[in-house]
Write a structure and sequence with these properties.
The structure is a homodimer. By secondary structure, chain A is mainly α. Chain A is built from eight helices and no strands. In chain A, helix 1 packs antiparallel against helix 2, helix 4 runs antiparallel to helix 6 and helix 6 packs across helix 7. The chains hardly touch.
DNA sequence: GAACAAATGATCATATTGTTCTATAATTCG
DNA sequence: CGAATTATAGAACAATATGATCATTTGTTC
């Protein structure tokens, strides 16, 4: 396992508290004091870690997104089969969001997290890394002759865009029991589209 | 059916919007402007209907509680059998809260809605009416020889208090599938306790 | 078209909130 | 230990948000 310094642990706790409060109230209604109270600390103390409210939000969200991404990346790395890598990637990404309700609610609330144009958003490198992961998984399965050859620039972007849209429109995470089924169905469709014919 | 004047319809719409916003944000974080926006109206317009924010809250909550109570009362009136009246009362009260998530969230948030002491709270007469309804249903079933004779002052208060506690502690409405089962079980226990032995 | 009902936008006082600053407390490290 | 650094607290302040008022306009009723 990885060793975290005291400082890193504290910063994590702060980001988690911030995510919880921002998820519950949204950026506007959430106050620095809410987050400070969540941590049992004076509000001025937070400015030791962060320049202002906006930066606290962005760093906390970046932390949440990175955790999500890391979890998926590790699961993908543990799976040897190229086609199953793709399935694992999709499933882990879904599973994590089901569990992490704070991150989920923030993604639902904040459409600017995945801007269509990449111009100067704070999460650009995280999103680019997600796209790269998708691209690598696809390339791997294509090399192995499992997926047909697709445009490795356009398709990862498309897949990512569809995924994000599902999250934001809350189709995926409605309270009904259809949520899981819809996800499985969608994954099947995408898999069929990618699979190399005649296998 | 009942005919409502334009004015009454407008007032209803305002209370519903208010309940929605207060339920989502709580009294403190909810603003008059939020509610006005929900209605697509300037915030000053609301002061035509209401003296201040607190009064808007109290009237909206009173409206929600009254609707809840009326629904239960009608269902009870439609059921002829004395013992089943009691069952219907409990079930309808439960059902309505499952459906009306705004009212439910407000009850969860605001413990002062059912003060243990009756001294000067705005909902005293509504709560008293609830207690009276319980008392009448009990008296009816006792007269018919279905329930054993119980203290008609203490028991309605107790039942009401238990019910309110369940709501506020959210035992009843947790997200798990146990919610409904727990309610049925609790109702059975109470029914057993009330039923006249030897029937 | 007079009389009333309803909504608006500007305005203002107050409360809330984000942020800064200085003083303490706690911890690290030589 | 004691100095240096890290972390927090609390007071203070400026900017903003918010609740509330009011004069005016728009819409409706009869």
């Amino acid at each position: 396992m990885k060793r975290l310094t005291k400082r890193e642990l504290r910063v994590e706790a702060i980001y988690k508290a911030a995510l919880k409060v921002f998820a519950a109230y949204g950026f506007r209604k959430a106050t620095i004091e809410d987050i400070a109270n969540e941590l049992g600390v004076g509000k001025s103390s937070l400015y030791f870690y962060v320049r202002d409210k906006r930066e606290l939000y962005e760093k906390a969200v970046a932390y949440g997104l990175t955790r999500w991404q890391d979890k998926v990346r590790k699961a993908v790395a543990d799976e040897p089969d190229p086609e199953r890598k793709f399935v694992v990637m999709a499933k882990k990404a879904y599973e994590h969001l089901v569990e992490d309700q704070d991150l989920r609610r923030i993604l639902e609330r904040d459409p600017s997290l995945f801007p269509l144009d990449e111009s100067r958003d704070p999460y650009a490198h995280i999103n680019r890394a997600s796209m790269n992961m998708i691209r690598e998984v696809l390339a791997n399965a294509i090399d192995a002759g499992r997926f047909r050859s697709v445009d490795l620039d356009a398709v990862p972007q498309l897949l990512f865009a569809v995924y994000v849209m599902l999250v934001q429109k809350a189709y995926m995470f409605g309270q009904g029991p259809l949520a899981g089924i819809m996800f499985e169905d969608g994954l099947d469709i995408v898999l069929d589209g990618l699979r190399k014919p005649g296998r």
